[in-house]
Design goal:
With 303 residues, the chain is of the alpha/beta class. The protein has 14 helices and eleven strands. Strand 6 and strand 7 form a beta hairpin.
Length: 303
């Protein structure tokens, strides 16, 4: 029987521009060394981080992701390490931190450049010694594999003194730079085809052919939002235009064709109209959960 391709191979194996990246990450996935994925926002770093975990010997264990940019600085430490009763005013119970939840598995540290300086020494100790202490609790060991996701200029931030040099060198044991989409123009056709197939599978609709006009402008465009922007363009077109040919308009002035908020609101309105208000079917058509759909309906005044 043929050997099933690894998640990393399935994600990256079709693209020549990522061949060296694939080989490096396959070697890293077979070990427990920290991996640092550098690149621009939207370039696919998070999906690659998940694929590393799924390819590793820890694939059956927990995968936990934390993004310092989404947490207030004063709450980051308790979110990472947890706390015990009495650790601070109002802490009547315990909270399990992200590190403990990732025990035996992988902890993804997203947007490392947003990590407050005050939290960096404790993260350094966790990486160096595999030890930490919940707030108000006893010290304990951590059996966790670390994957960091950082900005392309993270090294320059070290030189500027806004990111600790020792922490940078501790987590960059295996450092891999993910190329932006504008450097992968020759692969645009296969990238678009794969993304359209994936979106249509989730929407349970036939796969349309991409127009020649769209193929031309997509190869010429710089894609400042990288893969995320490409996916948004394709997804909004698939939702708003059910025809057999996919013909998204080129962006105007280097920006997406319409503000994403407005397009998302219209997409939800049309999905609800198409499904005659059925929440579950509309969520399935949009590729989101019913809870997410309900939250977006309230946000956009569609509830």
């Amino acid at each position: 029987m043929p050997v099933e391709a690894s998640p990393l191979v399935r994600l990256l194996g079709d693209f020549a521009s990522l061949r060296d990246v694939l080989h490096a990450l396959e070697r890293a996935a077979a070990t427990d060394v920290p991996v640092l994925l550098l690149g621009e926002s939207g370039s696919g770093r998070s999906r690659i981080a998940h694929a590393i975990h799924e390819t590793s010997g820890r694939a059956e264990a927990a995968l936990v992701q934390v993004d310092p940019a989404t947490l207030p600085a004063e709450l980051l430490e308790s979110e990472l390490f947890g706390y015990r009763p009495g650790a601070f005013t109002g802490a009547s119970g315990s909270q399990v931190g992200r590190v403990e939840r990732a025990e035996g598995g992988t902890l993804i540290l997203d947007q490392l450049e947003e990590l407050p300086m005050a939290a960096q020494p404790k993260l350094l100790r966790l990486l160096a010694e595999r030890r930490y202490a919940p707030l108000g609790g006893r010290e304990r060991t951590a059996d966790v594999r670390f994957i960091g996701i950082g900005a392309a200029d993270l090294a320059q931030r070290v030189e500027a003194g806004v990111f600790r040099r020792d922490l940078y060198h501790r987590i960059e044991v295996m450092s891999v730079r993910i190329p932006p989409l504008r450097q992968r123009r020759g692969e645009m056709g296969s990238l678009v085809d794969r993304m359209v197939r994936d979106l249509c599978t989730r929407m349970e609709r036939p796969v349309p052919a991409l127009s020649e006009r769209a193929r031309r402008w997509m190869e010429d465009y710089d894609w400042p939002g990288n893969l995320r922007e490409l996916r948004n363009v394709l997804e909004r077109t698939l939702i708003l235009d059910p025809s057999e040919e996919l013909d998204p308009p080129p962006p105007r002035g280097g920006e997406p064709p319409l503000p994403l908020r407005d397009v998302e609101r219209e997409a939800i309105r049309r999905a609800l109209a198409w499904t005659r208000g059925h929440q579950g079917n509309a969520a399935r058509l949009l590729g989101i959960s019913r809870k997410t759909l309900w939250e977006k309906r309230r946000r956009y005044g569609l509830a």
